[in-house]
């Protein structure tokens, strides 16, 4: 089966990027090295092609009530220009996907689901829309998405667009949607619009000094900040509470999965925790975690932090912060410590 390609695919190939299969897309994992690209974003500015992400538009008289029902946040509280990170849950309170709600008006919104979840989220929205007067359109194939991230990102944004945006706000500029959002923990912005405009914006930002960044550095950047990766840190069987993201829940409204979360809230459960390796080694997803000689879990995410120069990982644990654990790497038990994320 052939892989999907973003509208900028050929640009990545020309730049010599190492291309890989990511969620069915042929995407750049790195152009030079993951560490150098990671540091470019932390210290200067990088640009990511994330056009594999989805764009689902919801409009209509009941749009805000509908989105409040199908997400963990009360969207009625959002104002025009607001962006809000939240979760979409199934009836058991388990995460279908995490997403950002973009508010154009109280009757006009956009969701950005993860690439592998676009169809599932679109179907789930339609399945639960029968009691609401809404229109739901999947326009993912019509849009590009670029993320400009790093300390110098505002300079480039002003240089190209002559505007600035505060975190988690959006501006509509002609055909473009520009938001103060990102997945790196740095100052940054995301630019979405018709595919026909992608080439010029990509090339212009490179000319202004943005460094092209692959998915490898995108992963280490988000992991240092403890951000969730869809399909890895949650795969359809974990709840929002277990993911450690209870702050995305507005308990003062009714939403799909709320009853199950209320029951879980008063009980005991494992939650996603950070592990900082205290010995030399690189953590990888799937490595087994031990406590007092017993296997208790496995890493959902793991890497070497280019900034901390230590192994970091995430795992579902029922242990207090500061607890010593061991991670098995090539049949060797390396010492680690449970810490509160973010790592950086």
UniProtKB/TrEMBL annotation:
Domain Aminomethyltransferase C-terminal: 270-343
The EC number(s) this enzyme carries: 2.1.2.10
Keywords from the named record: Aminotransferase, Transferase
Molecular function per GO: aminomethyltransferase activity; transaminase activity
Binding positions (substrate): 190
Record NCBIfam families: gcvT, PRK00389.1
Family: Belongs to the GcvT family.
Protein name: aminomethyltransferase
């Amino acid at each position: 089966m052939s892989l999907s390609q973003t509208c900028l695919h050929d640009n990545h190939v020309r730049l010599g990027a190492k291309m890989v299969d990511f969620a069915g897309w042929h995407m750049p994992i790195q152009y030079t090295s993951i560490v150098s690209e990671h540091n470019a974003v932390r210290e200067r500015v990088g640009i990511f092609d994330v056009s594999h992400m989805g764009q689902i538009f919801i409009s209509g008289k009941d749009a805000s009530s509908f989105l409040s029902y199908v997400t963990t946040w009360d969207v009625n509280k959002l104002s025009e220009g607001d962006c809000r990170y939240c979760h979409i849950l199934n009836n058991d309170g388990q995460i279908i996907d995490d997403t950002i709600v973009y508010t154009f008006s109280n009757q006009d919104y956009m969701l950005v689901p993860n690439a592998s979840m676009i169809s599932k989220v679109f179907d789930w929205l339609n399945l639960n829309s029968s009691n609401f007067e809404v229109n739901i359109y999947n326009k993912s194939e019509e849009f590009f998405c670029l993320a400009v991230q790093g300390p110098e990102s505002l300079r480039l944004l002003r240089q190209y667009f002559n505007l600035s945006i505060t975190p988690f706000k959006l501006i509509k500029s002609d055909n473009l949607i520009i938001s103060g959002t990102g997945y790196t923990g740095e100052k940054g912005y995301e630019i979405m619009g018709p595919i026909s405009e992608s080439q010029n914006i990509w090339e212009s930002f490179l000319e202004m000094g943005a460094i092209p960044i692959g998915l490898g550095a995108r992963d280490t950047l988000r992991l240092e900040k403890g951000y969730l990766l869809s399909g890895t840190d949650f795969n359809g069987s974990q709840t929002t509470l277990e993911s450690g993201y209870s702050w995305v829940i507005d308990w003062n409204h009714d939403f799909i999965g709320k009853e199950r979360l209320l029951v879980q809230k008063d009980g005991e459960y494992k939650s996603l925790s950070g592990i900082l390796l205290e010995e030399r080694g690189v953590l990888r997803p799937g490595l087994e975690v031990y406590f007092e000689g017993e296997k208790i879990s496995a890493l959902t995410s793991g890497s070497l932090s280019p900034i901390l120069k230590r192994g970091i990982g995430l795992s579902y644990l029922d242990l207090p912060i500061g607890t010593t654990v061991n991670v098995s790497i090539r049949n060797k038990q390396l010492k680690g410590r449970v810490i509160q994320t973010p790592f950086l």
